[in-house]
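User: Second chain of the day. Same drill as before.
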Amino acid sequence: MIPDDVKERLKKKYNLEEPTPFNSEQRLPPPRNRTEYPATTEFHIDPYKGAGELLLGMTPDEVQAALNFQPRAGFHGKNLMNIPYEEAETFVRQYDPDIQTNGTGFVSLALGFGVYAEFAFENTSLPVETVCVFEEGYFAKNKE
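Assistant: Same format as last time:
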């Protein structure tokens, strides 16, 4: 929390107006999507609380319940979430030996997805935390 005297000095120095307090109750609740593949189009961010119906600190089961979605193993029948990073990398290298690794996971340009596992290179037994999917040419397009 910023002390009041520091706030006042910053407001004067940069000619800032008093911000309107954030109130997540002022908006309508986000729509619930009940399709097989929930494609929620809006996630209103509540600082330090979450986004839409997803709250920080939720377990994977709670997130699935909030989205009314049960993930399925889709990449050659293997669920890459929450397995050790080393197991995920070994498995994916069978299908793309040219994956690009970085300090927190890998990306397969050939297969169009990547995984994130914080500190994976310090401890490869840490679990995969995120699997992201991207469109063909995404990385080339965003380098421009």
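Confidence is low (pLDDT under 50) at residues 22-26, 33-37.

User: Great, on to the next one.
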